[in-house]
Every structure is written in C-alpha cells, then in structure tokens.
TrEMBL record:
CDD domains listed in its UniProt record: TM_PBP2 (cd06261)
Membrane spanning stretches: 31-52, 206-225, 237-260, 281-304, 344-365, 385-408
Listed InterPro entries: MetI-like, MetI-like_sf
Domain called ABC transmembrane type-1: residue spans: 202-408
PANTHER family linked: ABC TRANSPORTER PERMEASE PROTEIN, INNER MEMBRANE ABC TRANSPORTER PERMEASE PROTEIN YDCU-RELATED-RELATED
Primary residence: membrane
Family: Belongs to the binding-protein-dependent transport system permease family. CysTW subfamily.
Topological type in the membrane: Multi-pass membrane protein
Keyword set, alphabetical order: Cell membrane, Membrane, Transmembrane, Transmembrane helix, Transport
Source domain of life: Bacteria
Location of this chain's protein in the cell: Cell membrane
Pfam families in the record: BPD_transp_1
Protein's UniProt name: ABC transporter permease
Amino acid sequence: MSTAALPAIGSPALRQSLHRAETRRRTVAVLLTLPLLVFLLVTLLVPIGALLMRAVENPEVAAALPRTGEALSGWDRHGTPPAPAFAAVAADLAAIDDGAQAGGLARRLNTEASGARSLVMSTYRAVRDKDAWPATLPAADVQQRMLALDERWGQAKYWQAIAKNASRWTPDYLLTSIDLKRQPEGGIARVEPEQRVFGRILLRTFEISLTVTLWCLLLAYPLAYWLSTLKARQANLLMILVLVPFWTSILVRVAAWIVLLQREGLVNKSLMALSVIQEPLALLFNRTGVVIAMVHILLPFMILPLYSVMKSVPPTYLRAAVSLGSAPLAAFFRVYVPQTYAGIGAGALLVFILAIGYYVTPALLGGADDQMLSYYIAQYTNVDINWGMACALGAVLLAATLALYGIYRKLAKAELSLG
C-alpha cells in the first residue's frame, strides 16, 4: 500500500502546509467568536456610541430655526440683533407644523434663558395665524410686531440663547455636567457657586461607593479566607448561601431592608430589647440605610474574586513562615495577604464600578442628600425630558469608570513588574 510522501523538514512545502493549517485554525477561531463580537457590538458599543453622540448633539434649535441661525451668524451678541433676525424667527416658527417640535425648541431655550418657553410658544401661536400675521411683511414691520407682541424680544439674553445653540453640535451639556458653562461671547467659565451641583454629586457618588467598597472588603476578606480553608464539599455548600442573593430581585431585598430598618423595624426593636439603645435609631432615608443595603447587595461580588485567589494560595506558606520564627499574625499580613492583592484589586474594582452606577437603592432608602449621579440621569430622562443632559452625565460616569479601570491596570502592571 503506497503512502503520500511527507514534506522534508525545513522545506518550503512544509512551511506552506503549516501556514495553511495556522490560517485555518485562526479562521475557525474568528468564526466561533464572531456571534459574540456581533452581540457585543449591538448591545454595548452601539448604545455607548449613541450616548456619546447625544451628549454633544443639539438638534432642537438648529432644526427648528435654520434661518435664524444664519441671520445671527454675524451678530456680535450684544444689544438687539438687526431686523432680518426678527423676520427669520417669525418665518422659522411659522414653518413649524408639529407642535411637539415647537415645544422641544421652547424647552431647550428655556434651559438657557428663563422665560423663553412662554415667549417662544406665544410667538409660535401668533405667527401661525395667517390672517393676523401675513407672510410678506417687511423685516422692520416684523420686528415692530414681535416687540409689540412681547417686549422680551428686545432683551439680548433670548437672542444670545438662540445664537449659542444654532449649531447642531455643542459642548454645553458636557460642560454643564462638570459645572462649567459657555458664555454668550464664546468663552468657557465656571458656573455660579450656587449652581455648582454636579461636582458635589459626583464626589458624593465616589464617597458612597468607596464607603461601600471598604465595608465589603472588611466583611468579605475573613469570610473568603474561612471558606478557602474548608474542604471542597463544605466550601461549595456555604458558597451556595453566598450566591442566594443573586436569585432574589434587588427591589425585594430593598423592600426587606425598609421593613428591617424602619423605626419600628426588627433592628431597632432588637437593639432596644437588648438595652443597647433607649430610643429608635434613624436608619432609614439617610446615608446609613443606603450603605447597609448596598453592602448587602454587593458583598458577593467581593467574596467571589477573593475566594478564587485564596484557593490558589498554598497553606504551606504560612506554616513555613511560622516555622522560621515569624509570629502567626505577622506571617498572615506579610506572607499571605500580599498574595491576595489580585483578588482584593479585582473585587474592589468590581464593587466600586457597580456601586457608582446604583440608582434604585439610594432612591428608595436615601434622603435628598444621598442620591447618586444615576438618580439625576433618570431625572433628566424621565421627568425633564432632557436627553442631552442625561447622556452627558452618563458620559461622565463612563469616563470615571474607564479612568478607574485604567488606574487599576497600571497598578496591576506595576505590581507584576515588581514581583
């Protein structure tokens, strides 16, 4: 029976055969991962891209007042603009057929200049009356009519708001989210002290998230260490108990904490029965209740990375350190703990990133001064219908998350290089 001759070692035929085999292997690997890549593109990258685009998009004024934007392009933004600008506003408002578009324009301008909403809507209704407002009026007559209709058209701030937002793309939302603003002349300055709220909200978000992360680490580390010292069967059984909260809705767990922490709840009653306190503690609708509930919800996310790392640390290291003369406590902190830094970093990063995006728990258990950035994103989305501002705050949250991840990666690389 004849067999095909194999290529000689080092021959071009062998190299070509190996190259074809490697190409086939890579092609198969790409085809196997392609569904996952498409899924991530559709569900993650595309929404993030849309969020970032909407954070700098400003379509309301540009779409509704195109002629006005052109008429104001040469205006110095001081005093009252020339008569053609009045005629352009009247023509643009008369061309709007959809009342919802006019309402969106009015709301957008009202965020820049208080009172613009009523001004725009009253003018919109007036210019839509073809009998009372002919379309062929000279620009000077249109200016007089608009000033007679509402004298606020003679104030520069409303025209400055239109000129400032005449472009479809704007940095205003992003600037506002970090307590900055674009001045009518085009420069950038900090907002007034009483309006600098988002910086405090962001710091509050980081403060609550850091507090929750530290408490999770303090509670999870000894528990994970104990689980890592048990036999596999016992550890697996107890790990099921750790994972039980994942099977319960967050709303159910938050509702349970409301029952437990209220003035007549189980916690206060138990403490008073044990004579630890004389009157009920304020554990609800404040920072204490928010931290307790968030720690309870996020604790498994700290335990799992710690446990996986601790299981890989040989217990003989501690015994060797003690046998060489080290005190048990010193051996634990100088020999064992450094080997769990990877689990500490992974767990802390995971808990912190999840915590800064929390919305339901602070909204239900916290007070007015305990709401995090996600609460205001929901407020702008559902109540104020200001998608640009909501997306800008989401972009700030995304940037903070990426920055934290970048810091973690640098610290991890530095630790590996030192090790």
